[in-house]
Amino acid sequence: MQVAKRWSWAAVGVLLVGVWAACSDNDTKPASAPKTQPAATKPAPAQTTATKPWYDDYDPARFAPEVRRYAKQAGINPQLLMAILYNEAYKPHDPKFERQWAQVDSDPAFGIANMHKPAFDETKRGRDFAKRKWEELPDNPALAIEAAAWHLHDLAERLPAKRADLYTKDELLALGYNAGGGNMRIFARGRKAGAQAQSYLDRLHSNWTKSAEALKS
Questions:
Q1: Which of 154, 144, 80, 81 shows the shortest CA–CA distance to 115?
Q2: Beta strands per DSSP E along the chain
C-alpha cells in the first residue's frame, strides 16, 4: 500500500510539471487565483412605518395650521373656526362612511366641517376654490376648512349693523353656521335661540378653551 501511494504522488508530480512546461512553452500567463465571492446575504427587510389615515382617531387640532391660515384669509376668529370643527366632530369622518351615509340621508353634509352642498356652492363663488366640488370635501380636510372659513366670513357680512346684546358676534356666527343665515339675523335682533341651536352654542362654549389650546400646536 505504501509503494502504491508513493507512485501515485510521483505520477501526479510528473503530470503537474508537464502541464507547467506546456504553459511556459506557449508563453501564456498563469491563471490568476479565483477571487473569493462574498457569501450571499438576504436583503434587509424594508423599513415600513404604518401611517394611520387622518380620520382614524380624528382630532381637529391636527389641522391647526390650516385653521390659522384660512381664518386669517377670511378675516374671522381662528378660535371660532376651530371650535366649530370640534362641534362638527361628533360623527365619523371616514370618506367612505360619509358617502355611504349620504345615500340614506336626504340632506347630507360632507367634510370635517359638515357643510351642505347649497352652502358650499354659494360660498365658493368668486373664490380661489370656485372650481372645486362639494363631493371632494370628504377627502380634503383643507378644502373643508377653507370653505367653512369663507362661509363664516359671508355670514358676518349678513349680520345687521345694529344688534341686540344677547349674543356676541362669534356666537351669532356659530348660530348662523348651525341654523342658517336667516335665523342668525333673527337671533341678532334679540330672539332667543331654540333648544337645538342653544345646544350647539353650549357645545361651542365647552370647546372654546380647548380650541385655543389646539391653535398653539
A1: 144
A2: 109-110, 115-116
Distance of alpha carbon 180 from alpha carbon 69, whole angstroms: 24
Residue 77 in grid coordinates: 376668529
- What tens digit of pLDDT does each residue of 171-216 get? 999 999 999 999 999 999 999 999 999 999 999 999 999 999 999 9
- Tell me how far apart the alpha carbons of residues 156 and 186 are, in angstroms, rounded to a whole number: 14
Helices (H), 26-168: 64-74, 78-87, 95-102, 117-123, 141-157
Instruction: Tell me the per-residue pLDDT of 65-87, one tens digit each, with 9 for 90 and over.
Output: 999 999 999 999 999 999 999 99
Predicted model pTM: 0.77
**Can you tell me the distance from the alpha carbon of 93 to that of 63, in angstroms, rounded to the nearest whole number?**
14
- For residues 139 and 116, the answer to whether their CB atoms sit within 8 Å is no
Closest CA to 59 of 141, 146, 135: 141
Contact 204, 174 (CB under 8 A): yes
